[in-house]
Amino acid sequence: MLTTRQEKLMAYLREDGSWLTGKALAYLMSVSDRTIRSDIGKINDFYGFTLIQSNRREGYRLSKRKKTIKVVEASQSMALPQNANERALFLLKHLLVSKKEINLISFQQQVFISESTLENDLKKVRQILQDYPSLKLARSKNILSLKGSEGEKRHLYKTLLAKETKGNFLNLTTISTLFSKLDLMTIKAQFDWICSRYQYRVREIDIPMMMLHIGIGIERMLNRNFVSLPYHDGALQESIEYQIAENFYQQISKSLPIELKEEEIVLLAILLGNRNANFKKLRVEQSDDKSIKALVNEILTVLASQYVINFYKDEHLRSGLERHMRGLINRQENQLTVQNPYRQELKRHYPLIFDMAVRLGEIIEDKMHFTISENEIAFLAIHLGASYDTSRNANKYRTVIIHPDEKGLASQFVSKLESRFQGDIEIIAHLSYFEEGLVRDLNPDLILTSLPLRHPLPITTVQLTLFVTHADEGLVIDALTQLDHQKLHGKFEQKVVELIRPDVFYRNKVTGSETVENILSFMLNALYEKGYTPEDFKADVFKREFFSATSFAYGFAMPHSLKVMANESCLSVMQLDQPIMWGEYEVRLVLLIAISQADRNYMNLFFEWFNDVVNDPKRYSELLNAKDHAAFVNCIVGNNN
């Protein structure tokens, strides 16, 4: 069985997709080069083939064999718990499902921990249970059990499964592996069949979450742990949802030893109804359209002011936000919660969009006087992301095509390029041959040619075949990526030396107890004392952190304010010897952004740069390895070339 560290090592290699040196991996994992070599050997031995290739000069990468993808995906649920958090979740899951009691001596031997470590793990379990008032640990000598209501146990179990799937509730195959006693895919087929009999449709995006609910319910019933509801709605029995739930459990009880309970049928009927717009219990009056329109208008005004992105003319975004507001108010009035399967992807790959959504959520909370969950914020981010992509596509790369207009091949050549890259390039001219003066006057960003071409102009030029093959498309993508980097480098380099101030750059600075609050307070107090920020800047940064942690994969955190501007723009940096838990991720590098009103447009630039860095383990390793302020700045500037 693989350890969590070995799983994490595989994840880094999977994300990067290319060679990573042992030194880079060692910095990423906070271990020695020797440990990396040892772990890779154990991983390959575990799978019985060379899953991870090694090269003395290049380092390590995942092999290109077809079965590698299946192996990597299947490995995600095999790791033994390695730290207090993981062991606490491991204990709780076993208490909830696998066993009603746990022998602590056996558990201690299974995960190779001392008695004192076990006691600390149990403290962690009790901390988790503080959010579930009826749930308590009961310990008799070396036997541990969990007491409390079945409703709260189900809620806790669902939370643990959400952590295990890392928020990706769209992957039904992954979810099915979490239920060791069930064939969830077969159960889904039975559920689909029952729904088809009643001509009842569940939205595809809701099916994974619905099956998660059903799997939890059935697995608990197998252990004869039934839910109890505080009321019984007689009218519910007349609904189609109740009939579907009753018939479904009747079918399941024929193949699994579960006892049919009225409360279980009612619960499933309610879950079905919560996803059906026609479910009579969910009907509410329409909210005041004028107030919603005014709120959306205020949101667009704030976004334009703070992020220098004008969404005013995007009627699709405006109408989409208005519809979403009505649904949000509906859910709040009916006390319904939603899961957003894209939440982690949005936070990780689109930090600028997610941060705009956080700001939007703050405005809604202030005006509507209710709390917005991170899942709701992620739905808002989807609306903003679609509009932002549209606005960015308005800045396409100006492209000249050079291709002889013979036998209709030219139109085919151009149409393929337009179809494949319509969001990235704007074809400003189609020439049959290269003329230096004409091309200089056109001043394109890119030349795509089917002819061998050498010229003295400083313009990126790519030669393609007549038929624009997949290999040709790869060449164009490489050129566009290089242009993106050049554009970002040109903008970022102008400000980076000025903004990353040496007087607020800290390497392995000891702040006392290494917690998120202490580290942020240390850095924010320094900014205030040096005059970079006003007094209320600190509270605003903590308010932003409260909405949603600013940590991301690969160990970055990028805290910043919601709306309070700095007196003078700067970027404070802290590198940590040992990672700390910051939200959902371990963090070793903190980049605290303070932007003045005059420089507010650079906020977008920082997030775009961060999005580029956070998905590149090599660059992150180099940043961690920078010995001082000058080396850190040179690393950033050099990597944008």
TrEMBL record:
Domain of life: Bacteria
Pfam family, one: HTH_11
Record carries keyword Coiled coil: no
Domain PTS EIIA type-2 residues, every copy: 498-640
Alphabetized InterPro entries for the sequence: BglG_antiterminators, HTH_11, Mga_HTH, PRD, PRD_sf, PTrfase/Anion_transptr, PTS_EIIA_type-2_dom, WH-like_DNA-bd_sf
GO biological process, any: regulation of DNA-templated transcription
Claim: Transcription is one of the keywords in the record: yes
Entry protein name: Uncharacterized protein
